[in-house]
Specification:
The chain has about 250 residues and is mainly alpha-helical. The protein has a domain of about 70 residues. The strands form three sheets. Strands 1-3-2 form a three-stranded antiparallel β-sheet. A three-stranded antiparallel β-sheet has the order 5-8-7.
């Protein structure tokens, strides 16, 4: 049975990266889903990112996201989560792309918003919230929740340093890209995209130039290299030089 994460918008509050660091700590300590949720509630009372203490409803929304990513992800994401966790323990400085990727895999709407922004920034120096929401509605329908949820994601991107506010309200600029020097990290970033699409497969060229990774500068590599260094990904060749990456057992 296919996960409903591909159709759900899900993200219900602006998210701060420090909160995901706390989720990683709870996962490392072996907290279960229910016990982690209570710890997150306590943590959020004094966590950065709030002008005033958060309401119980806000804490529930945030805890849902932290639990669904690091503590109790969908069953098909567990091995991926574990690989990201191992890499994060070895390289704590990778926290930004690692949190970005696990959140995008668990909540594909995160990647959907990023991809819209990335495409727009390939064409222009600034993007507006109106432009972003308009393109998201073309894909997800003109639901009332789309505009609000998109705003939460956009503000999260600003909080994470992926976007910058411009002098004009509701208008954003690209921040300095973060280089991804580690090829194992880049491979996990590609895997995140495969987990975020229902068909679980994508052309290598599209992964290397994926607009959802607009905050990052990725290294060039071949699909064969990816499959040799990740036992959850297969490479399929088609045409003369094209490669398709797909998740195994999908």
């Amino acid at each position: 049975m296919q996960s409903d994460r591909f159709t759900k918008v899900g993200i219900q509050r602006e998210l701060h990266i420090d909160w995901f660091d706390q989720a990683v700590r709870l996962h490392a300590m072996g907290f279960t889903k229910s016990s982690a949720r209570q710890e997150i509630y306590v943590y959020l009372d004094g966590a950065p990112g709030f002008d005033a203490p958060p309401s119980l409803q806000t804490k529930k929304y945030i805890a849902n996201t932290l639990v669904k990513s690091w503590i109790a992800p969908d069953s098909d994401l567990i091995a991926f989560r574990d690989a990201l966790f191992q890499l994060l323990q070895e390289n704590p400085t990778f926290r930004f792309p690692i949190h970005w990727c696990l959140l995008g895999a668990a909540y594909p709407f995160w990647f959907a918003v990023a991809a819209v922004i990335g495409r727009l920034l390939n064409l222009q120096d600034q993007v507006t919230q109106t432009q972003i929401v308009s393109r998201l509605k073309e894909r997800f329908g003109d639901r009332q929740t789309i505009s609000r949820r998109a705003r939460y994601v956009i503000r999260s991107f600003v909080a994470w340093g992926a976007l910058k506010d411009s002098a004009t309200k509701g208008c954003y600029e690209k921040a300095v890209q973060l280089g991804v020097p580690d090829k194992n990290l880049a491979i996990l970033m590609f895997e995140a995209v495969l987990h975020a699409i229902p068909e679980s497969k994508c052309a290598m060229g599209l992964l290397l130039n994926n607009p959802a990774f607009f905050p990052f500068h990725l290294p060039v590599m071949t699909g064969n290299f990816v499959s040799q260094h990740n036992d959850r990904i297969d490479v399929v060749r088609y045409g003369m030089d094209d490669e398709l990456l797909k998740l195994k057992d999908k």
